[in-house]
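Readers outside the structure-tokenisation community will struggle with the description of the input data as it stands. What matters is that the chain and its backbone geometry are given together, residue for residue. For illustration, here is how one protein appears when written out as sequence plus structure tokens:

…
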Amino acid sequence: MLQRFKPKKQNTFFKFFSIKSSFFKKHNSIKPFNKENENEKVLYILKAFNNFNTMNSNSLDYYYNKALNSIKSLEYTSIDVQKFCFELKNFENQADDFKVKAGLFLSALINQSKEQKFLLDTTALSSKIHYLGYSNTKEIVVNGNVGNNLGSNMEKGKITVYGNAGTNVGYLMKGGEIYIEGQYQSIYPYLLGKVYHKNQLIFKDGKKLNDLANQKK
């Protein structure tokens, strides 16, 4: 029988979500959890993540598929993914590849799930997660900042970030929409899809907004 996985820090797991923020009220289709919701599913996810590593020189697809395989037998909900994201704070200093590892694993959890909408909170993290939304096909709402390559290889769906994003937003993006409410460092110029900044369309199918406007004249 699987032993309970114990993160480094205790008593912080539910502290943040005891606050009914305006953010959760705005996205009321995905409700915050509380202690009564706790179940063994998150412990299995934490164990799978702890055993997952991306330290070798293989491709991103290799590690993404490795993450998918590590969770293929698990059953979980969007709330379980939300809980897991908050627990990532306890793993930040355990591996040099944390930023990539967390992004690919979260992306795999989301795409593998039967549910369509996911709310993630990254405000408790001091690190900015890279490759969040890798090969995305779902709707993701992020409260907080993200790292580089947001929506990399994204196929469809929608990603909204209520915070800042790093470099190469939409890297090798194939479709879908990305919304950034904070600041961003750079956008991948050859993406196929749409990128919005503060609800203004700024990039579409490899074209900047100014280029699109000139084509219509």
Notes: The chain has one domain: 22-216. Residues 22-216 form one domain. The CA atoms of residues 152 and 176 lie 11 Å apart. The two ends are 67 Å apart (CA to CA).
